[in-house]
Amino acid sequence: MAHKALYRVFRPQTFADVIGQEVVVTTLQNALKYHRLAHAYLFCGPRGTGKTSTAKILAKAVNCLSPQEGSPCGHCDNCLAIAEDRFIDVVDIDAASNRGIDEIRELKEQVRFVPAVGRRKVYIIDEVHMLTGEAFNALLKTLEEPPAHVLFILATTDPQKIPQTVLSRTQRFDFRRIPTQLVADHLEKLAAAEDIACERQALLKMARQSAGGLRDAIGLLDQAHAYAPDKITVSALNDLTGGLSEGALRALTQALAAVDYAELLESTRKALNDGCEAGRLLKDFAEWLRRLFMLKVAPQALDEGSILNPEAAQPLAEALSVPCFEGLIRRLSEAEAHLRYAGDAELLLETTFIDLALLVEDQATAPAAASPQAPARRTVAKPAPAQAPEPAEPTRLAAAKAQAPSVVPKEGKQPLSEDRPAATQGATVSDAGEVAALWGRTMDALKGYSVRLHAFMKPAIAESLQDGVLTLRFPEDNAFHYNQMNTPQQRSMLGELFRQTSGQNAQIHLVLSAAYDPTDDLIERSKELFNLSDDNIKLIDE
User: Fold this and answer.
1) What does the pLDDT read at residue 449?
2) Residue-wise over 288-306: b if at least 16 C-beta within 10 A, else e?
3) What DSSP line would sit under 355-417, residue for residue?
4) Which stretches does DSSP call E strand in 244-289?
5) Residue 310 — very low, low, confident or very high, per pLDDT cuts 50/70/90?
6) What is the chain's percent helix, strand, coil content, to nearest 5?
7) Were 207 and a residue from 180, 221, 255, 377 both cysteine, which residue would form a disulfide, CB within 3.0 to 4.6 Å?
8) Close Cβ partners of 23 (under 8 Å, ≥ 6 residues apart)
9) Residues sharing a CB contact under 8 Å with residue 159, sequence separation 6 or more, in sequence order
10) In degrees rounded to 5, what are phi and psi of residue 431?
């Protein structure tokens, strides 16, 4: 005897068998019980949530020979014939392959005839959004005023593509994704009925992977049983689906939290060599970070089996901050969306994880300046004794200020965003070359501290060091770099690095304007020395 897929064996036959759609089931049962059945229904929702099965059950209910409280008995001749797809008065149409106006015209001709066996003719049109515009128009009149013996049930995964004129002529029911716990419980019952040995954690993993679709979960159980007939384990399921084990996920997270680029790339490469595709890796890691975040802020909200070893995962959850979790998950989601357009998926994956490590590093340094000698996790550096602490800005204000575009004045070189710090008793270096040399040593230290921040500061020119204020000027076309670094935290960090490399206490003053040109000062001094006007300068130039 040929094997029959489990999802077909265990297809719901009565309303009581439908899982996770209580609102839909109760409404339909009451409509049948109190004779308030509509002439047309629209079942919407993700795949595998029970739309077509519920449509078949509704078709049984209206043609059942002995209905019970709005539900079909499931045992009469009509119910058995509908379950076996041999009932002439129930017509199942696939709109994906019968989407034209000719098919709808043929349907309209058949609608006129009374049922041959049952009480009502039921037309189930699956994936109805695939019909053409002309086919929808041809269906409208029949859908609005069908004969009394006809019931239309439309099913779709994409209701946005259905014309409003059709939507307004139907009663709409939205089928929701089935909760993970409910799917796992149902899989456990099916496994027991089929004598399939399966770990509870493996069932939970199947339920999570199906994303609320019961049919997909049952199909995965059937496939896993074929791969591991003795017992389905989490390890066997990972081998089958190419997913990451929790150990591999923890290794990736440890490397990320430590900003260990070598270990991070090695763990990524190992996952790919073990058969995990780039898209699956991004998705699994994003879901893992979401569960770690839940473990950190709301452990009571975690589903059963979300984390197999909470004791081992707890330190990882504490190692990353809440803003860091948000940034990591968002960037992983963005990378997953861009993956389909990437020419080299592995290259995108590696650059994504490097970007994640840079984000962790930036988050670690954001609260305050840190010692550049610190290996991975930065520690807060002590402020210089002579340097007054700057007032902290509210987080949202600082973020908005960092992203706000700056407008460079047409004339002059005045700072644009903030006033120059008040002059304090501090170092003054009149020689421009010496100032540049001091700042060069600071840039070398900054590169060892953070490659990302060094790249932001590279366009800046050390203009002057006077009265304990070091002025650094960004060219006009580097407004993005200027905005990234012109925050109290980053200026404080630069000041601490400058003190450590030069021995001088100085406040950092960042300016955005036209690039500094020493020739300008030479021209001004020549004009004063030789008493030249601008007109004289023009004559000399000519």
Assistant:
1) 82
2) bbebbbbbbeeeeeeeebb
3) HHHHHHHHHHHSSS-B-TT--SS--BPPPPTTSPPPPPPPHHHHHHHHHS-----SSS---SS
4) none
5) confident
6) 55, 10, 35
7) 180
8) none
9) 42, 44, 129, 167, 172
10) -80, 120
**Which range (145-154, 356-365, 432-441) has the least confidence?**
356-365
DSSP 90-127: EEEEETTTS-SHHHHHHHHHHHTSPPSSSSSEEEEEET
Give the largest CA-CA distance in the chain. Answer: 115
Total-model pTM: 0.63
Q: Which residue has the tokens 């994640």?
A: 356
C-alpha angle 360-363-369 in degrees, rounded to nearest 5: 125
In this model, does residue 231 exceed pLDDT 90?
A: yes
CB environment 249-259: b (16+ within 10 A), e (fewer) = bbbbbbbbbbb
Distance between CA atoms of residues 507 and 458, nearest Å: 19
DSSP bridge partners of 472: 462, 510
Q: Quote the mean pLDDT of the chain.
A: 82
What is the distance between the alpha carbons of residues 331 and 249, in angstroms, rounded to a whole number?
A: 17
Question: Rounded CA gap, 419 and 442, in Å?
Answer: 24
Q: Which segment of 51-55, 186-190, 426-430, 456-460 scores lowest on mean pLDDT?
A: 426-430
**Parallel, antiparallel or unpaired: strands 461-466 and 469-474:** antiparallel
> CA dist 157 to 18, 135, 302, Å?
18, 18, 29
Residue with tokens 């239309």: 152
Degrees to nearest 5, angle at CA 195 with 194 and 201: 100
pLDDT at 110 over 50: yes
Q: How far is CA 432 from CA 437, 439, 462, in A?
A: 9, 11, 8
